[in-house]
Amino acid sequence: MSHPATAFTAAHRLYVKSLYKRYLKNALDWTIRRDLWRAEAQQIRAEFEYNRNVSNPRELAQILERAEAHLAKFKHPDPVIPPTAPGGTKWERNLPPSMAPLYDHEAAGQH
């Protein structure tokens, strides 16, 4: 069974998905209320859908460059970070003790 050739690689699709997710996350950082955020999320989706069928690599590179620049320009200065995520307020708090054996100073000759 043969599949039609795709214009872009799986890595490209992952990059676009990551960019889309970062756009949504940044919009949610600026608009905490989900009911207001939903309208903005639909607008972001419409922008991505508008550029979905662009097949010219140079044009697509320009679109992605502008999107990254826009995202960097409007990045929230204090984004919402879940408490247990890296950078959150509870990250690595109360870690379980190490299960590795204790260092034996006498066996090492340092007593």
Automatic annotation (TrEMBL):
Domain Complex 1 LYR protein: 16-71
The UniProt record lists the keyword Transport: yes
Region (Disordered), start-end ranges: 76-111
Alphabetically ordered keywords of this record: Acetylation, Electron transport, Membrane, Mitochondrion, Mitochondrion inner membrane, Phosphoprotein, Respiratory chain, Transport
Top-rank lineage group of the source organism: Eukaryota
GO biological process: mitochondrial electron transport, NADH to ubiquinone
Topology class, membrane: Peripheral membrane protein
Location relative to the cell: Mitochondrion inner membrane
Keyword Electron transport: yes
UniProt GO cellular component terms: mitochondrial inner membrane
InterPro entries hit by this protein: Complex1_LYR_dom (IPR008011), Complex1_LYR_NDUFB9_LYRM3 (IPR045292), NDUFB9 (IPR033034)
PANTHER family: NADH DEHYDROGENASE [UBIQUINONE] 1 BETA SUBCOMPLEX SUBUNIT 9 (PTHR12868:SF0), NADH-UBIQUINONE OXIDOREDUCTASE B22 SUBUNIT (PTHR12868)
Function: Accessory subunit of the mitochondrial membrane respiratory chain NADH dehydrogenase (Complex I), that is believed to be not involved in catalysis. Complex I functions in the transfer of electrons from NADH to the respiratory chain. The immediate electron acceptor for the enzyme is believed to be ubiquinone.
Self-association and partners: Mammalian complex I is composed of 45 different subunits.
Family to which this protein belongs: Belongs to the complex I LYR family.
Listed name of the protein: NADH dehydrogenase [ubiquinone] 1 beta subcomplex subunit 9
Organism whose genome encodes this protein: Galerina marginata (strain CBS 339.88)
